[in-house]
Amino acid sequence: MNYTYSDIAKMIDHSLLNPSLTVADLEAGCQLALAYDAASVCILPYYLSRCSEILRGSTVMPSTTIGFPHGGHTTAIKRAEAERAIADGCMELDMVVNISQVLSLQWDYVRRDIDAVISVAHAAGRKVKVIFENCYLTTAQKIELCRICSDLGADWVKTSTGYGSSGATHDDLKLMREHAAPQVQVKAAGGVRDLDALLAVRALGVTRCGATRTKDMLDECRRRLNLPPITSVASAAPQGY
Question: Is 158 a catalytic residue?
Fold first, then answer.
């Protein structure tokens, strides 16, 4: 096999974004990500400060969403959300573009909206993943978003929120990897539900994946690598991401 456990675990942003998750679910989800050494926990913004406390001193990063899930917040609100997230310990911010303005071809607005969050985040040494919500977009719109994100220095371009009409597709991932600058990474979200699916998107150049089935995927990874199972933590409530 051409991967280690860490290679795979550090691809996963453990997603805790379903609005029906309880505090107990959020706590369990953070502990699960710690036990499995995921890349990050992407958590509901109101619980980010607590998540940062739980993850402090580990290699698992606290992250949250901006303008989620529809992207229709004003730019000023997205900027304020980014500032609050940074104050609460966020290391990576997953922001949703203004989908309406993308579909309206208002590219100057779209650029300013994305830049507002990237500028705040980068000034604080944080990273930004820009969510396109590809299920609603044309190929030309996806390509233009890749170009804008490359110009602005986004850290990742991301397929989906996981709450649109569909999630990551291989065609979209290939398109984004082709049209984003080499230094801009690609994140898949929505529909990657087992280890084989994760390995398949990895082969396309994906470096991160939003997932709720973290435990199942990483248990299978450990099994294939003949590593002992992790038994000290239970899964949080499923989201269907």
Answer: yes
